[in-house]
Each structure stands twice: as C-alpha cells, then as structure tokens.
C-alpha cells in the first residue's frame, strides 16, 4: 500500500512592518525601504485560488445608475471646521464621510492640533445642533489628554474622550455616541482581535484603516487619523493606506521654532498646493492668516547684511528676511554656515560673486540665515542671498522697503522665476515699495500700486540698484 502522505507544515513568510514588502526568508534589512530589523514572521495563506472562487455572479444593485447631472452633490459639501488654516488646506472644510490622514514627526504638534480642532468643531456642532465630537486616544491616557486640553483651552461639553486600543471597542463608542466627527490618535496604536499581528504592523494597520473608512462612508462621519512617520519622513505602514484615505496631510516644522506648516500631499476634494500656517506656543496652537510677523524683524531698517524676499509655499506667498554676516576668519579654512537656506546654493552664490563681482570672501567666515525659522530654499531667493552677502561684505545697508526676487545663474545672469506677480502683491501689502525682479518676464507684470519695480538682467545691475552708495 502507498505510504500515507504527511501533512505539510504551513509555509511562513517575513513581512516588513514599515513598507509591507515580503520575503520567503528572514533578512536583517528590508530590500524595499532599506529599514533594519523590521521583518516579522507571518503565516502565508494558500495562494492557489480556483477559477470558481474568482467567478462572481451578478447581483441586483441597491440603486440604479443615474445620469451624472441627476446625482445630488449636497452630501459632499464641505463643512467648516472652525479652524481657518485647516479649512484652507482641506479646500474649504471637511466633507462628511471623508477620511483625513495627518502625518508628522514625533513632537511636531499633531495631537495638539487635532485636539484644538476637535474642541472647535465640538463648539460649532453644538451650536448647529449636530452630534458630538469623539476623540479616541491610543497613545495616552484620558487624564493626560484632559491635562493638555486644559492647557490649550480645549474643554467643551460636546467633546467626548475615550482611551482605547482595540478596534471593536472603538467601533462600539462610535455606535453609542453617533459623533459628527471622529478623531483617532493614532491609527498605528489600534489593533483588531480578529487579525493576527501586533498593533502597528502592516496587516493590523490595513485592517483598522479599512474598518474606519467603511464606518466613515456608511455613516457619513468625517474621520481624522494621526499617522506616524518613518526615519526618512514617509508615512509608516503599508503604502495602500495612503491610497485608501481621501486626504493625506503632512504637518511639519522645526521643533525648536514656533512655526508649523500643514500641507496636503493628496486631496480628493481640493487643491494640493495650499499651505496652512500655525504658531505653536505654550498656550496651544493658533492659525496664522498672516505669518509675516514671524519672518520679518528688521527688513525695513538700514542694517548691513539684510535683504527681504518673498517665497512661495504652494500658492501662498511667504515674506522672508535673509541675514548674512561676513567676518574675518580666525585661521585655517573659512567657515560657511547656513540656516534656513540651501547650503549648496549659498556656496554657488559666493562663487558667482567672487568671479563676476570681485567680492572676495575666501579669507572670511560667511554666515547666512533666515529669521524666525523660515525656509528659503527655492532658487528665487538667490538674488536676496547675494545682496545680503555683498551688503555685509561692504558694510552697506540696503534701502528700507526693498525686496529682491530672482534666480542667479553661474554666468551672473538673473533668471526668470514663477509667481512674481503674487510675490509683488504680498510685498506691497506689507508696505514694501521697491522690488528687484528678473528682466525676463517683467514685461508681463501688471502694475502694483505703491510698488516701484526694477527689472535687472545681471547680478551687477541688481547690486547697483540695491546698494547705490557702493
């Protein structure tokens, strides 16, 4: 008689908890995202699926298909959250049933922002007769969140708070409260008892996100999810998470500064080039409709080594003051220190000034920085950096009320840049009355009231217009 076949042990595979890549054997480093020590053993189910299992019989639809002109759009109208900067990024407000994933580095202020948004939405919902706002925390206890809410004045009777890490209990809170907004902090801390793996794993994150998205669509509840990020700044968990949600927003900023920027990476209901500005202080987080006060300190005073410019964050013009200091070197190699600007572009500007303007800084330490932790890394800030360096090297202050916009090439030419008209309008609103802009494209600029526009084609012309006394 033939020998009885022995039952084969179930095959196992190893899955990366960061990106979801799988391997038949354990590896120390993920071949996809290059993370170390992230492969965990998972049971591999049968991959053979018969044709009968793939076949699906047609079923009667719940509602017939309608001409697109007859489909009601009232349920997809955005509703204001009460936080103007968040509404700007979301495209006017949050849509019922939308799922928003907010990602950011630890300590940047994600929980503080969403707690403030939850309290503001709770007050608005209470006034309009809507349901309460449910805030579910999986990273802190309810008492810890209560203390933060007292500090930032986010106490409202319509704001419900629950500390849960189990998906079933979270859905039970949603069933009992029928909230008008659900906030989950964070999606990586929630786990389902029906799914294998620990909280934060690829399988768990996919299952939890899928369940929350299903609840949001079924009940028309907008959901705000907090997401962790990996070492390289990407959103932790499977990439499919970003495809499932409706909006992916990045919350970023220097933890040593006050400014925080919120930008949409993906938005099904609005633009992705809007930026929201927030000021994070001891009393909480406040939206900044006009953040110029953080970035301009002495732009209008006659101090050598300063020049103002206007950068573009998405479509939003942001005034920035660039400061430079040229000091005698103490010996050895001169230092080149930058903060808030692109180090390589500053080095290029120093080379261009040395070759085209005879501004020799080879024996001097050069420091270039921005005010208030702003970032001025786009090429359009080259001209302002060059003017600040020459002003500091020659001890000649630029006239008050001057801004400079333009990219500087290696031959010394000033190249055209985008959005000059929006930059000039923002500068004029802040009281600047003179602007140095690239000559290419200047013929298409409209006149700005109270603004004298000086087109230049070479960095030498720009220095003559910015530092006429030198």
UniProtKB/TrEMBL annotation:
The keyword Cell membrane does not apply. One of its GO terms (molecular function) is ATP binding. It comes from the Bacteria. One of its GO terms (biological process) is recombinational repair. ATP binds at residues 104-111. InterPro entries: AAA+_ATPase (IPR003593), DNA_repair_RadA (IPR004504), P-loop_NTPase (IPR027417), RecA_ATP-bd (IPR020588), Ribosomal_Su5_D2-typ_SF (IPR020568), Ribsml_uS5_D2-typ_fold_subgr (IPR014721), Rubredoxin_2 (IPR041166). Pfam families: AAA_25, ChlI, Zn_ribbon_LapB. SMART domains: AAA (SM00382). Residues 75-229 form the RecA family profile domain. GO terms for cellular component: cytosol. Keywords: ATP-binding, DNA damage, DNA repair, DNA-binding, Hydrolase, Metal-binding, Nucleotide-binding, Stress response, Zinc, Zinc-finger. The keyword Flavoprotein does not apply. Residues 365-470 are annotated as: Lon-protease-like. A motif (RadA KNRFG motif) lies at residues 266-270. DNA-dependent ATPase involved in processing of recombination intermediates, plays a role in repairing DNA breaks. Stimulates the branch migration of RecA-mediated strand transfer reactions, allowing the 3' invading strand to extend heteroduplex DNA faster. Binds ssDNA in the presence of ADP but not other nucleotides, has ATPase activity that is stimulated by ssDNA and various branched DNA structures, but inhibited by SSB. Does not have RecA's homology-searching function. Plays a role in repairing double-strand DNA breaks, probably involving stabilizing or processing branched DNA or blocked replication forks. Belongs to the RecA family. RadA subfamily. HAMAP family: RadA_bact. The middle region has homology to RecA with ATPase motifs including the RadA KNRFG motif, while the C-terminus is homologous to Lon protease. This is DNA repair protein RadA. The gene is radA.
């Amino acid at each position: 008689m033939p020998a009885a076949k022995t039952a084969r042990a179930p095959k196992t595979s190893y899955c990366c908890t960061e990106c979801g890549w799988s391997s038949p054997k354990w590896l120390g480093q993920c071949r996809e995202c290059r993370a170390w020590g992230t492969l965990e053993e998972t049971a591999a189910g049968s991959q053979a699926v018969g044709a009968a299992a793939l076949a699906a019989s047609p079923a009667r639809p719940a509602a017939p298909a309608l001409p697109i002109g007859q489909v009601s759009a009232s349920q997809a109208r955005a509703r204001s959250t009460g936080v103007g900067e968040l509404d700007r990024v979301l495209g006017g407000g949050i849509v019922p049933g939308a799922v928003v994933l907010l990602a950011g580095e630890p300590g940047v202020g994600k929980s503080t922002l969403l707690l403030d948004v939850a309290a503001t939405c709770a007050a608005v919902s209470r006034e309009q007769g809507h349901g309460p706002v449910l805030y579910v925390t999986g990273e802190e206890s309810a008492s810890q969140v209560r203390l933060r809410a007292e500090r930032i004045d986010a106490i409202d009777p319509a704001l419900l708070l629950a500390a849960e890490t189990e998906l079933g209990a979270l859905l039970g809170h949603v069933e009992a409260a029928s909230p008008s907004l659900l906030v989950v902090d964070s999606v990586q801390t929630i786990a389902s008892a029906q799914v294998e793996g620990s909280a934060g794993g690829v399988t768990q994150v996919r299952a939890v996100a899928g369940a929350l998205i299903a609840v949001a669509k079924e009940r028309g509840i907008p959901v705000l999810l907090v997401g962790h990020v990996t070492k390289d700044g990407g959103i932790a968990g499977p990439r499919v998470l970003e495809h499932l949600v409706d909006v992916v927003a990045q919350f970023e900023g220097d933890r040593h500064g006050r400014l925080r920027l919120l930008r949409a990476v993906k938005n099904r209901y609005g633009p992705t080039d809007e930026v929201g500005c927030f000021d994070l202080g001891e009393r909480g987080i406040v939206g900044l409709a006009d953040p110029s006060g953080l970035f301009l300190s002495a732009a209008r005073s006659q101090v050598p080594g300063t020049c103002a410019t206007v950068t573009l964050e998405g479509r939003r013009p942001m005034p920035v003051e660039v400061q430079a200091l040229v000091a005698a070197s103490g010996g050895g190699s001169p230092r080149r220190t930058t903060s808030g600007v692109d180090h390589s572009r500053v080095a290029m500007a120093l080379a261009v000034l040395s070759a085209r303007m005879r501004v020799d800084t080879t024996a001097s330490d050069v420091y270039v920085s921005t005010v208030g932790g702003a970032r001025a890394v786009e090429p359009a800030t080259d001209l302002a950096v060059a003017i600040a360096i020459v002003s500091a090297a020659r001890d000649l202050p630029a006239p008050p009320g001057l801004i400079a916009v333009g990219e500087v090439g290696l031959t010394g030419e000033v190249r055209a840049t985008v959005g000059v008209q929006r930059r000039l309008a923002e500068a004029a609103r802040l009281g600047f009355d003179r602007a140095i802009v690239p000559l290419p494209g200047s013929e298409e600029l409209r006149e700005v009231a109270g603004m004298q526009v000086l087109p230049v084609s070479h960095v030498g012309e720009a220095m003559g217009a910015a530092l006429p006394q030198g």
